[in-house]
Amino acid sequence: MQTSDVGAATGGGFRALALRTSLGSLLFRLRAVIVLVVLLGIFSVLSPAFFTSGNLVILIEHVAINAILAVGMTFTILTGGIDLSVGSIVGLAGIVAGGLIHSGLVLPHYGIIVYPHTWLVIVIGLLAGCFVGAVNGALVSWFDVAPFIATLGTLYMARGAALLLSNGATFPDLGGKPELGNTGFLAIGTGSILGIPAPVWLMIIIGAAGALLASRTPFGRRVYAVGGNERAAKLSGVCVQQIKFMVYVISGFCAGIVGLIIAAQLSSAHPATGETFELTAIAAVVLGGTSLMGGRGSIGGAIIGAFVIGALADGLVLMGVSEFWQTVIKGLVIVLAVILDQLQIRYSQRAAAALRS
Amino acid sequence: MNRKFCWYVCLASVFTVFAGCSSKQARSGSKLIAIIIPSNDNPFFKSEADVASARARELGYQVSINSHDDDAHKQDQLFDLAIANKAAAIILDNAGADASVAAVRKAKVAGIPSFLIDREINEQGVAVSQIVSNNYQGAMLVAQEFVRLLKGKGNYIELLGRESDTNAAVRTRGFHNVLDKYDGLKLVGQQSANWSQTEAFDKVQTMIQANHNIQGVIAGNDTMAVGAVAALKAAGLNRVIVVGFDGSPDALAAIRTGDMKATALQPAAEIAQMAVDQADKYLKTGSTGAPEKQLIDCVLVTPTNADQFSNFAPKE
After folding, report:
1. With a cut of 50, which residues of chain B have pLDDT below it?
2. Which domains, from first to last, does chain B contain?
3. What is the ipTM score, two decimals?
4. In chain B, whose CA is at the least distance from the CA of A54?
5. Who's near A97: CB < 8 A, 6+ residues apart?
6. Model pTM?
7. Which one of A35, A266, A326 makes the best mutation probe of the B interface by having the most chain B beta carbons within 10 Å?
8. Which stretches of chain A drop beneath a pLDDT of 70?
9. Is the CB of B99 less than 8 angstroms away from the CB of A56?
10. Is residue B316 within 8 Å of B153, Cβ to Cβ?
């Protein structure tokens, strides 16, 4: 019954329960959804190409990249941390997988080149992501490095590693060769099941798994507890270090998947892939109502946040808005969402005070 | 309960959206030309986009301009959107010779012809046209002028472009095809500054710390050359000969004041216009009447003729 202990430890249980019934609070909580629906409406009216099945599938496929990153990012932010290295992990995982398919694994002592099977390539690519995540986790939990700095360091290291592995070049033609048994990699990015592209399936699977993990498992409750009040969580028996380690591994894993998807979509791996992805992922998480201070937020929110950013990006391009305005508008929406977030906090505090008196 | 409600609203909105899809039909016979360039804040790419869009409007097309920031993934998404927008043709300055093939092929499958400018891709038969300036010829022109100014001897530094860019490799090969024939010329430093002015400034500053005895700097593009000029000036090395490549407005100004000595002007304006004209012809007749790969020669710009050029084209 560790979950209930933790709920009490964060001290928010009763207050939150009381607030959930209030309509105003509900509207605030749904703000990302409201923004999304409004955006979809505006773009549908202004651009005839926007509201077509073809484009909506494309939109969701584009969103999938950021949404998967945002799921991992939410876990780190829920613990009060952050993961700046996801963009670099995307590049690294792509290069690892691309290199294995394109040039194989050279074993200098035996003078042979090994081409691993596609499944193994995928596993190794994901492990590369998890490995960088594990380095982040170790730095944050056992070496007490501030998450911002630790992941900034690995941002550079992972990018450098990607450049070193590829010597700055691009690995082309990742279709594989039947005689080497490494075909089929491209299906991760370009395949589709039941008419829905593979990246969208991956987003659905990872989103659902992430949401279940966060809200329905002891691990998830502990993540919230660590972010809500680390000391209280520790005193109530949560192994804070272990939780912190795991969230960075999860984030690295998600970034690894994105790296593989992009390499498969482009049928080539470039070491600079994924630059600034961390920022859009963080924006999606914050838009979805997750507090950067930790302890408050949800996976579903982050995915909706990713949809807001994706709809905005694609819709503005389809409408033919000038690039300079696109940048300004994206910034405005993020700032607006954070202002709403602050208003909600103030509102909750006032409501809580009223409840107490 | 609240979370559940949240999800219901989500699902409901997604379903409404999907339900609405089938009822709408996209416009057919659009006259949209999508122009995709590496960035909007670089004068070279900006003038490509300006010239191409002006020409396309002249021919009666609608135009959209977007930049991919040298990110092949973003470029891929812009292609998706051009396809969704039912563009008639795409004019592209691409984000990597290998990484762009998949996107261009996707457009071809969707029935949208692509016309590549400035940079090639490593596959033929996917794009309708690939019109690039003759980087090899231009690099040799600049290198010959560099040798003439240095009288065939001295220490020099070379600044390379972004390694993933084919043009960077082609230009350095062109430079060395000329320079390596002179035993008196010594390459004392060679670094990539990724086409960037600030990076070139930093790298040159560091390299002249290591070796003050420098007579020349040869740069893979003008942006880096201008960065090198600033670093050399800051170090008081005013007599170093700096040459670049591109013919950007900055470099032309620097050549007029004597800070730079030469550059190879890429006929970017001409290339952009050719691409639009060929797109127009292809859409009307089904053929451009030209081979896929087309090389356009560069022009050497020196203090004597710098006044005759602007915006990557001879002045009218």
Report:
1. 1, 9-28
2. 32-132+268-294 (3.40.50.2300), 135-265 (3.40.50.2300)
3. 0.76
4. B84
5. A121, A122, A124, A125, A174, A185, A259, A260, A263, A269
6. 0.79
7. A266
8. 1-29
9. no
10. no
